[in-house]
Amino acid sequence: MGASDLTSQGRGRPANKLAAFKRGCAHAIDGLNLHFFVQRLIGRATCRLEQGAFLSHTARIRNALGDSSQIVVGANSHVRGELMIFAHGGRISIGEWCYVGVGTRIWSGASIDIGNRVLISHSVNIFDNLTHPIRASDRHAQARQIFTKGHPSDIFLDDKPVKIGDDAWIGACAIIMRGVTVGQGGIVAAGAVVTKDVPAYSIVAGNPAVVVRELSPDER
Q1: Which residues pair with residue 54 across a beta bridge?
Q2: What are the Cα distances from residue 17, in Å, to 11, 62, 68, 130?
Q3: Cα–Cα distance, 71 to 63 (Å, whole number)
Q4: What is the pTM of this model?
Q5: What is the CA radius of gyration of the chain?
């Protein structure tokens, strides 16, 4: 080993340390979620974060049910969107090493179970409920209560559980409706509106979404 090798190694170590320091600072700034901090400070329910789970400054946790154990973000998962459960019920469970993009909304009145290693892009909407009653007068009554007192604890929104299997990928601006199961390794194309189950290792696209093709064995 020559002198030049020693010199380059010596220069590389400080540079690597500086790069790591910069990444650490950027990560810390990205994780300064004042909305989450204030909710915790005033004693409002939020969520349970497993080891290594990360909420960015854009993430929003809205827990009208009042039980932090009903929203769980798994180990090493990153959330940049919004997780919300209603006052009448709801549960959101996110597995390990998942990603929830900016502007994505996951709203539950029954249950939404997301497996491990699931990638959910930005501006996705996932609902296990209608969010509002069908009858106009009931919608008005719901809105009036939300505006004045908060979400009602006694309401029928035709809730139906949603399940997203391990290794699924949900493209940008997709919509997943109540009662849908996305199978393991399933891919939902950008902008798709999913009203029926997605078979495992299949790609769906369109409105309403239909199967485009199955993934070959070497793509799984």
Answers
A1: 78
A2: 11, 38, 38, 51
A3: 8
A4: 0.89
A5: 21
Catalytic residue among 57, 78, 132, 151: 151
Supply the pLDDT for residue 69. Answer: 97
pLDDT along the chain (220 residues), means of 10: 50 75 83 91 95 96 96 98 97 98 98 98 98 96 95 95 98 98 98 98 98 95
DSSP per-residue string spanning the chain = --HHHHHHHHHHHHHHHHHHHHHHHHHHHHT--HHHHHHHHTT----EE-TT-EE-TT-EEEETT--GGGEEE-TT-EE-SEEEEBTTB--EEE-TT-EE-TT-EEEESS-EEE-SS-EE-TT-EEESS-SS-SSHHHHHHHHHHHHHT-S-SS-------EEE-TT-EE-TT-EE-TT-EEPTT-EE-TT-EE-SPBPTTEEEETTTTEEEEEPPGGG-
The answer to whether residue 151 is catalytic is yes
Task: Report d(CA 130, CA 107) in Å as an integer.
Answer: 10
